[in-house]
Amino acid sequence: MYTRLNRAQPYALGLFRIVVGLLFACHGAASLFGVLGGAMGGGSIPAGTWPGWYAALIQFVGGTLIVLGLGTRIAAFVASGSMAYAYFKVHQPEALFPLQNGGEPSAVFCWVFLLLVFTGPGSLALDRLFVRRSDAERSEDRTRGQAPAVAA
């Protein structure tokens, strides 16, 4: 049974990444564009408002990149940091524990994205296409006897 589960792990991780990224992007879309119920209280956050608009932009762009599996580790790192900031600056001053201060979503997203930094995107990610292409190009260079190209 564990063998089957281990074989399915990249696909489960990919599905996990897609679902979490979509949820995160929806938060950003709600705040930026006033869709899906809008920002808290309805509507959208005025452009350039600190920190809400920037947080929403990170949520929307970061969530979209994570869904696509494009630059996943970097996008997840930025998203994790933004959620840590949200937790410690917005929620934690209200009370010590996330259950008391309403910071559960921020805390969970922070840790989920930190996990993706270390695990990578799993399967079904655009990152994999670029890695395969790079590996194939390096392999092709080796077979032709050329020195591998150095990435800038």
Any low-confidence stretches, pLDDT <50, length ≥5? none
- Return the structural class: mainly alpha
Please state roughly what percent of the residues sit in beta strands, choosing from under 5%, 5-15%, 15-25%, 25-35%, 35-45% or over 45%.
Answer: under 5%
Rounded radius of gyration (Å): 19 Å
Distance between the termini: 44 Å
- Number of distinct beta strands: 0
Order of helices and strands: HHHHHH
Count of helix runs: 6
What portion of residues is helical? over 70%
Mean pLDDT: 87
Overall geometry comes to elongated
Biggest sheet character: none
Task: Give the key terms.
0% strand; 152 residues; elongated; mainly alpha
Summary, kept brief:
The protein has helices at residues 2-33, 52-68, 72-91, 98-101, 104-119, 126-144.
3D architecture notes:
The protein is elongated. The protein has helices at residues 2-33, 52-68, 72-91, 98-101, 104-119, 126-144. With 152 residues, it is an all-alpha fold. Helix 1 (2-33) packs antiparallel against helix 2 (52-68) and helix 3 (72-91) packs antiparallel against helix 5.
